[in-house]
Amino acid sequence: MSNDRIQPACQHFGVCGGCKWQNLSYEKQLEHKHIVVRDVMQRIAKLDVSVLLPIIGCDDVFYYRNKLEYSFSDKRWITNEEAASEKIINKNPALGFHRPGYFDKIVDIEECLLQNNKTNEIRNFVREYTLENGYTYYSTFFHEGDMRNMVVRNTTTGQWMVIVVFGREKDNNIVHLMDAIAKRFPEIDSLFYVVNTKKNDTLFDQQMILYKGKEYIEESLGKVTYRIGPKSFFQTNTRQAIRLFDIASGFAECKATDNVFDLYTGLGSIALYIADKVKKVVGIEEIKEAIDDANINKELNGIGNADFYTGDVRDLLNPDFIKKHGKPDVVFTDPPRAGMHEDVVNTLLLLEASKIIYISCNPATQARDLFLLKEKYEVTAIQPVDMFPHTHHIECVARLDLKK
Ligand SMILES: C[S@@+](CC[C@H](N)C(=O)[O-])C[C@H]1O[C@@H](n2cnc3c(N)ncnc32)[C@H](O)[C@@H]1O
Fold first, then answer.
1. Residue 82's CB: how many other CB atoms inside 10 A?
2. What is the Cα–Cα distance from 184 to 179, expressed in whole angstroms?
3. Can you spell out the DSSP letters for 328-355?
């Protein structure tokens, strides 16, 4: 056995799809992530990797997440040990995480070490209550069942949001469960439910119904307070997000005269974080509710020089928009895993901002886009940041300077 192997702390290791690298020392995990970034930047972006900085690890390798999404299933995953044992297998439904490679099999989770332990208390209570009271769990085969998903979010300021996703409304099943959760966990600040009767689990197009408390929870990053609504993306590792934004802001070397664009702004996270350093910042995001939150966050923090727009970056970042807001000096871009559409890359090449700060959660698509941007830009620094210990995920900030 390799010396780099360690005893995984989690009882579900090897079965759950969550933390597959938990048997590798954290030092080795970081080393491996650094190598992955170096390889894609060499192979796909064709970069001289002397610009690659040492990866920044997390101080807390457990309990670092502020959001977990659980699924209910009528099919519990049976472990190899159970299958091989002589014991009668109890095929209870399950509430937990997906078994890797099986969209319909859920590993029943008793304790997850990724979020504050209250997440375990809430999830286990919901499982106990629903099973005791005859709620059915969702079948992806028949597309039926009372219980579908559950999202638990929290903040470093101690606030909690819970969203329970039902598959149907029947015989007051919603009221009974929501009342039970509210009674058992009065500390939940924001309690929502959704009735999702579609075949897929996505929630962005679903109506979120506030059952109790506030419509948001609040998080602070540096000087900025963010209201986070149930549909808004927020960086999942709060402490590391501060580091990420400080790196991005440091790379940008923003000046009081700068006009800044923040593409894929979410609820305005980066735009609001750097607003006090620049003349004006404009954020673009496709989820309307996130832009609503961005506008509230702007008011909440008394920020007068930020404007937010809803739409696909590919459509919105057009000549009229640029005429209206002026050419940017600095562009922050933080796209989803798929990276930027080639049209967006081409628009950036036409815009010729002095600096582009490209934040990415997928170094391979980032490397692809960097390769295209090299036509006019020099990549002067790449900073990998580990936001997700025990997983293969890597966040990376690249600084691009317009060639003279
Ligand atoms: C990785 S998140 C970054 C959010 C934000 N920068 C932050 O740090 O919190 C990507 C964001 O892009 C949004 N998004 C995805 N595709 C988009 C598109 N084509 N146009 C505009 N926004 C998009 C998502 O809704 C999400 O909020």
1. 13
2. 9
3. -SEEEE---TT---HHHHHHHHHH--SE
| pLDDT averaged over every residue in the chain | 94
Instruction: Yes or no: say if 138 and 147 are a contact pair by the CB < 8 Å rule.
Output: yes
What residue ranges do the domains of the chain occupy? 26-61+234-402, 67-221
Q: For residue 344, which atom of ligand 1 is closest to its CA? A: 19
Bridge partners of 333, per DSSP, are: 263, 358
Return the closest-CA partner of residue 72 out of 113, 114, 116, 107: 107
- Give the tens place of pLDDT for each residue, 58-78: 999 999 999 999 999 987 666
State the CATH class of domain 67-221: mainly beta
DSSP secondary structure, 218-247, as one string:
EEEETTEEEEE-TT----SSHHHHHHHHHH
Assigned token pair, 22? 């938990």
Residue in the block written with tokens 């390889």: 39
Q: 338: which 2 tokens?
A: 């798929």
Supply the pLDDT for residue 171: 85
The residue to mutate among 285, 315, 362, having the most atoms of ligand 1 within 8 angstroms of its beta carbon, is 285
Are 64 and 389 in contact by the 8 Å Cβ rule? The answer is yes
In this prediction, residue 253 has a pLDDT band, given cuts at 50, 70 and 90, of very high
pLDDT digits (tens, 9 = 90+) for 132-171: 999 999 998 889 999 999 999 999 999 999 999 999 998 8
CATH architecture of the region 26-61+234-402: 3-Layer(aba) Sandwich (3.40)
Atom of ligand 1 nearest to the CA of 233: 27
Please report the pLDDT score of residue 140 as a whole number.
86
